[in-house]
Hints:
Blueprint: H1 6-12, E1 27-30, E2 35-38, H2 50-76, H3 83-88, H4 103-107, E3 112-117, E4 120-125, H5 130-136, E5 160-165, E6 168-169, E7 174-175, E8 186-188, H6 192-205, H7 223-231, E9 254-256, H8 266-275, E10 281-283, E11 290-292, H9 306-310, E12 316-318, E13 331-336, E14 345-351, E15 354-360, H10 373-377, E16 391-393, E17 399-401, H11 404-415, E18 423-427, H12 433-445, E19 451-453, E20 483-487, H13 491-494, H14 496-507, E21 512-515, E22 526-527, H15 540-548, E23 552-557, H16 562-573, E24 586-589, H17 595-600, E25 604-605, E26 616-620, E27 632-637, H18 642-646, E28 649-652, E29 661-664, E30 670-673, H19 686-696, H20 706-716, H21 760-763, H22 766-777
Parallel strand pairs: 3-8, 18-19, 18-26, 19-25, 20-21, 20-23, 21-22, 23-24, 26-27, 27-28
Antiparallel strand pairs: 1-2, 3-4, 5-6, 5-7, 5-8, 9-12, 10-11, 13-14, 14-15, 16-17, 16-28, 29-30
Amino acid sequence: RPPANMEEKRRERPYAKRRSSTSPPRVLAVAVAVGEVESSECSRRPPANMESSRALAHLWRLTGPTGLTQARAMLLGRPCWSQHQTQQHNFSSSSSSVPEESEDEKKMPDHMMSTIVNGKEVWVPKGSSVMQACDAAGVDIPRFCYHPKLSVAGNCRMCLVDLENERGMSPKPVASCAMPLAPGTTILTDTDRVKKAREGVMEFLLLNHPLDCPICDQGGECDLQDQAMHYGSDRGRFVGQKRTVVDKNLGPLVKTVMTRCIHCTRCVRYAKEVAGVEDLGVTGRGGASEIGTYVNKLMESELSGNVIDLCPVGALTSKPYAFTARQWELKPTESVDVSDALGCNIRVDSRGTEVLRILPRNNEEVNEDWISDKARFQYDGLQRQRLNVPMAKGAGSVLKPVKWEEALTAVAEAAEGVSGEDMAAYGGKLADCESLVALKDLANRLGCETVQCEDVGQGVPDADLRSTYLFNPTLSGVDAADVILMVGTNPRVEAPVLNARIRKAQLEGVPIGMLGEDVDLTYPTTHLGGAPPLSAKKNADFSLALDQARRPLVLVGANCDPAVMAEVEELFEKRRETIEDGWNPISVLHQSASTVGALDLGYGAAPKAVPEGKKLVFLLGADEIDVPEGAFVVYIGHHGDKGACRADVVLPAAAFTEKHATYVNTEGRPQHARRAIPPPGEARDDWKILRALSEVMGHALPYDDLRGVRSRLCEVSPTFERIDEAPQKATYLGPKHKKGKVGAKTVLRTTIENFYQTDVISRASLAMAKATQARANQ
């Protein structure tokens, strides 16, 4: 509806200049020099008469443009200059003066600044954006393209706000994500102009968006839906043909419906800045713009699934989860990932007795906002090849289902007459700390001292000193390191989330050296050779950076030879005087979730094969240890993998999503995994199986519930009393490994051959099998 007259048009545009005689008085007289000047226009409008012109020119010659603005600001009662500057220029006014600093302002540190958001004063760090100030004030600002972990793009324009300072209101709404906060700024987020602007932006975003919300997997958790309801209009004015875009093939994990894309470029910035693979980009211009790979290829990243969480609409969704469930049908459970040794915080969404998806939880000290593709998509392996009934070998050496009483009795009969020296107990990659301590207590009561854990690196010299096998600077300490040296490790496949953190440090200028196999880590490194001896002098620039480093970090693969570990310690022993007090540079990167917990409980490193002469072997989820013929094998686990095929008795256990358990990550942080779904069939918690077995064997363990088991954990290691707390940074105490000889042709490399299939869950996962096949065919 067009306005009836110009006066009504001005009322609809509150930011327009009002020059009518009936408008509120906005003209202020400057006491001595300025004359009649409109406050909102500052010095843009010429003076009304010759007297004002001479006065303005005289004031300009005396103080410059800053003094002119200062005088106007004083008369408006908006001090944007310090009191000292005001007294220096001899500005005074009978009606207003610069107020003195309050007590709260005097107490605030120098790096903070104040602003007013919708009438509420907040203090934020200097250099913050307008959006960050609004977030600090608790004011919700709509956004699509902005993400705190990515660079600022300013594409969507949904975060528009009004700014006001001593010069008046901003000519038009500004994008709060890209606007730095200036002193003396007042932020207004609920004006009519801002509401009108957001409504217009939302109308443009919905211009070509398809109306397929009923079949979209993002329905119920879509930012576009929520903000359209809150900030959009009840009708649209577009009646033409909506454009369509061809879907892109990013692989078997990420599904694309590019017609829904609103070009926020979150996925493009994530792929370039975090994942380190520049596979995504924007092609075309204007209405022909598209996001894709330009050429037909897969997204070659171990962190590709995070674009699903970043996408604010349904353009990028999970392919295995497609058309499975709605968000309101799922039960969320906070837990911990066990696919690697990082212990990433996750949220397990389940419905009934089935896990339907896994999402990341924010933890700045561990995984920030990301998880690996294996942690996200391997959950379908929890439904395949599961052990759900006890089994024992009968006639013909074939495993047959039996009752729990029969299975436990068979184990007790096999243990009769067997001495402790002829027994062995091995923990697996996914074993939790409760089951590990129960297995060790049972083995010790039977007289068995061979208690070991698979996938414990041979480079761990002594489990009595915790700093010899931990990531001592902590995971968040990577951000504080000033030089990084990697020895015999590949964090891209061993811990992709840690690799992204190291990449962030490299982008900030931290030099990174690599001794071992020369692989693509998604960021440039200085290759120092593939085999020992270790010498930083192979590259002069990196050697100089290492000599001058105050907080060096050496990332050592857990499977490095002890002689290599000794060389690493000798390298830093020579530079001990330059290392900052309280900083321990040795960082051991383990590969399995159970390793650090097993070492805390006194487990040793398991060999690749059980020694000859062992008559009774307990396998607690250990599937990669060869057992000689003639030994009676008791397998306690949740998947029918290699260990169950060799077992004489199989006792079905619960997976990590089906029990309350404790895991310790590679930096020594204990974390709790919570039960999301019940175990299948007759499966039970591992420690409960061992408790029942101990009673049948006549050596009952002294705990009957979860609280008792965790009390036992705290008795063995006080570390388990501080849940979700990283250990205090241990001071570097000098070399702990004995020197030895390493073959000159021994290339240091990781033991992981296939990132997508490293344990029993991922090997049973159909999604991981498809990802493996797609990577091989790429």
